[in-house]
Amino acid sequence: MSTPAGPRLLGPAEVRALAAELDLRPTKQRGQNFVIDPNTVRRIVRESGVGADDVVVEVGPGLGSLTLALLEVVERVVAVEVDERLAALLPGTVAAYAPDHAHRLGVVTADALRVTALPGPPPTALVANLPYNVSVPVLLHMLALLPSLERGLVMVQSEVADRLAAKPGSKVYGVPSVKAAWYADVRRAGAIGRHVFWPAPNVDSGLVAWTRRDPPATTVSREQVFTVIDAAFAQRRKTLRATLRGLAGSTEASRRVIESAGVDPEARGEVLGLDAFVRIAEQLATQPAGQYAGQQGEGS
């Protein structure tokens, strides 16, 4: 009895040949740096922990390097690609390099930040080489949009990886760190050198792994909590009493709100964990109607 043949993965020659087929010149605007090393995509799939029962979302599949490695392991890959030419090419690439797995691929031609739904069964994992210029907004949008996601691993700029996985008190702890913590436990999962990409980026890359967890139990909305987070880090060197003044209505009101939440008004946002921001948001919500509406959204 014959068994399905595993995908052939893309090396430097294959990546350049596919790009030449499209007369494609990678652009910084779309963060296009294509992986040309099969060992790297195998490592990403291995570190992600996905398996035969997983439906994986891949944002920015590009020429298909990671897509092919995923298809060898998982039940289905839904690839979201904003570049129409790349999206159109991908099914043919998979048919050529992984013919026995082509039926497992779905392609959505769209901006990942504007996607409101995905076809097919609910995805269980997100595994992607995210475009550097929108990596944090895309990750947060996907986590909010797809509650079925249980875990994931993304490759991002090394400094962004540090920020996403940072803990309170770290110099790089900030808005991405706290917002990601709303959805998941996040950790650094390794480093990726520049030589595995074409064209080689000017920065190193890092892997970030996450596991979904329940958000904090609270009487306020995620948007209200995120509004507090945005305000707290808008001026990093200022105390919470000063940065939250606009939300509370005055410096004195800000002090009272923060103290009522059990937080030091003279502290800075970089020392607070997610639960402290939740408590502040809850206290703000009890104040008379004013500027605090919780409508600043979920960006980075």
Apparent shape: elongated
User: Uncertain segments of ≥5 residues (pLDDT<50)?
Assistant: 293-300
Q: In angstroms, what is the radius of gyration?
A: 21 Å
Question: How is the main sheet built?
Answer: 7 strands, mixed
Strand order of the largest sheet: 4-3-2-5-6-9-7
The helix-and-strand class reads: alpha/beta
- Treating each run of at least 4 consecutive H or I residues as one helix, how many helices? 12
Terminal residue distance? 52 Å
Mean pLDDT, all residues: 93
The ordered H/E elements are HEHEHEHEEHEHHEEEHHHHH
**SS elements, strand count:** 9
Give the amount of beta strand, in percent: 15-25%
Helical content class: 25-40%
Keywords:
single chain; 300 residues; alpha/beta; 7-stranded mixed β-sheet; two-stranded antiparallel sheet; 12 helices; disordered C terminus
Show the helix and strand layout.
Layout: H1 12-21, E1 34-35, H2 38-48, E2 55-59, H3 65-71, E3 76-81, H4 84-97, E4 105-109, E5 125-129, H5 135-145, E6 151-157, H6 158-165, H7 175-183, E7 184-192, E8 197-198, E9 205-212, H8 222-234, H9 240-243, H10 245-248, H11 251-260, H12 274-285
Parallel strand pairs: 2-3, 2-5, 3-4, 5-6
Antiparallel strand pairs: 1-8, 6-9, 7-9
Helix pairs in contact: 2-3, 5-7, 6-7, 7-8, 8-12
What can you tell me about this protein's structure?
The protein is α/β, with parallel strands linked by helices. The protein has 12 helices and 9 strands. It has helices at 12-21, 38-48, 65-71, 84-97, 135-145, 158-165, 175-183, 222-234, 240-243, 245-248, 251-260, 274-285, and strands spanning 34-35, 55-59, 76-81, 105-109, 125-129, 151-157, 184-192, 197-198, 205-212. The protein has a 7-stranded mixed β-sheet, sandwiched between helices. A two-stranded antiparallel ribbon has the order 1-8. It starts with 11 loop residues before the first helix and ends in a 15-residue tail after the last helix. Residues 293-300 have low confidence and may be disordered.
